[in-house]
Amino acid sequence: MAEQPYRTLTAKPTADTLIKPGELVDVVEVTPLTLADRRIYNLLLENAWDAIDRPVTHVIAKSLLRGSHNANDRIGASIERLMSAIVKIEVVWDGEPAIERVQLLGGNVETLRSDGLLEYEIPARLRRIISNSTIFARLQREVMFALTSKYALTLYEMVQKRGNLRWRSSEKFSLDELRGILGVPKGKLTSWSNLKLRAIDPAVTEVNALSDYVVEIAPIKTGRRVTHVELRWWKKDGEGQGAAGRELSFSKVGRRARTEGTAEPVAEAKPRPAWLDGRGTALRTETYETARLRHPGYDIYYVEGAWRDWAQGKGPADDPDRAFLAFFRTFAERNPL
Question: Are 110 and 118 in contact (CB under 8 A)?
């Protein structure tokens, strides 16, 4: 009698980890999502997990979706992007490989109170895919929130999906496949050099610093052009996992320098002023909307975090909203999509 495959729905989240079906890891986004969107979606899947394959509505407190941000304004925008997002998933249909296009999120109701609730549905086609899933990624919640780009989070999910495969430690992708899975917007990072510099190298550095795996993405040439890459991964030893755990306990300030080996040792980090953490100075909702209009495609809240990190040690801004928008302009010039 053939052994039945292990079903993804059998896997259980823990206090520190959540489950993501493998079919939702290597998706190609027709509608690009932000880092915040992806985090929120993972939390929605986790919250619905016990009944995710059934035609029921799920309820979650909006405060659980905010992360470290102190307002709910981004939640509605993320929910709307997730509702309109269409992804392509590789499936088997009548015994043949096929592409299925599905929406990530169904109808929902958001109460307007700041401490209110979100009621939402998982679309029927997606429920069927999840119900039939036999491979999944177990994501560490702490790592998911520590990663600072959607490319790093996606790479982390890809490796977590593949890390426990017994007879496999590498996989080949075409550049178009990799761009699609990473969610690179169309027309952006079209050359290998730009893709490597802006997306791949920073993502690999972060995943290597914070996860339990060492990751490499090696180029493969056809003639003189890079046309494919090989993703390689292997489990860290105890010392490497300990180093990742220590890095997770540190502030994000200076993490890039530490992971690249250029940081100077410090005796003890000074606490950040209240205005930098957003406790004393929260940006206005209009400021976020202005930033979205001026710089579409960027993760507003990641850039906000970068601005507050950059301002460490500086005096409070006279006009924080204007200061943030000025920083965003420079950030976008230096980090084109």
Answer: yes
